[in-house]
Write a structure and sequence with these properties.
Elements: H1 13-36, E1 50-51, E2 56-57, E3 64-65, E4 70-72, E5 77-78, E6 83-86, E7 100-102, E8 107-108, E9 113-116, E10 120-122, E11 127-128, E12 133-135, E13 137-138, E14 154-155, E15 158-160, E16 165-166, E17 171-172, E18 177-178, E19 183-184, E20 189-190, E21 193-194, E22 198-201, E23 206-212, E24 216-218, H2 235-246
Parallel strand pairs: 1-4, 2-5, 3-6, 4-7, 5-8, 6-9, 7-10, 8-11, 9-12, 10-15, 11-16, 12-17, 15-18, 16-19, 17-20, 18-21, 19-22
Antiparallel strand pairs: 13-14, 22-23, 23-24
GO molecular function, one term: O-acyltransferase activity
Pfam family, one: Hexapep
Keywords: Acyltransferase, Repeat, Transferase
Amino acid sequence: MPRNSDTFSFPSPSAWWQRALHRAVHRLWYGVQSAGAVTAERPGRLRFRGIGPGTRLAFPQGTVFGEPWIELGEHCVIAEQVTLTAGMMPGLDLGPDPVLSLGDGVVIGRGSHIVADARVTIGRETFCGPYVYITSTNHSYDDPGTPVGKQWPRSAPVTIGPGCWLGTGAVVLPGARLGRNVVVAAGAVVRGEVPDHSVVAGAPARTVRSWDPERGWEPPLRTPPPVPIPDGITPEQLLALAEWEERGEG
């Protein structure tokens, strides 16, 4: 029988219950995430060598051990499920010096791993996309008669300069030395030395663009530079401008 258009339809009690449960679960999870985040004021069980003000490790955290040899600068953002380890296993005495250091303003994307057996240093304001893997240790395969996983690994320090950007799924291998403001393309596998102001891509990663003080970017950029936001503009003004452009009034 067709429904009368003037008849109102009311949700069943089960629908009301499902919506209420949905809201309650999300509210509870938000509370758990807030309570479980690690900061300098609320380190929980983690006792880092240093954790600067404004730094936050989102909950749930990934594997974290060797905290007495891990230094986190100020205003770092560590997303969910990020692994931070110093040493090959928990409970080792790694000496008097830090093993893993993050500078101020470093951002580490969700699901990333930083595994520091030898020294790993990440410069200030370096941003990493999700699922980036940075390690100072790699498996060796010298003995063809022994399973690779049972052979003693090789380690070499890793240095990532300030202002770099590492795309989703990038891998940085032992001994890598990245300069200032380096761009690592998504999925690239980096080893060796990368000069300042370079763009690298591929596996193994190769330089695909670099900056020359006289000629600029070589090869030239294919897109125009973004227009900077004027000082003093408010978020409300930005939203109004976006709506104005969508209506074709620009």
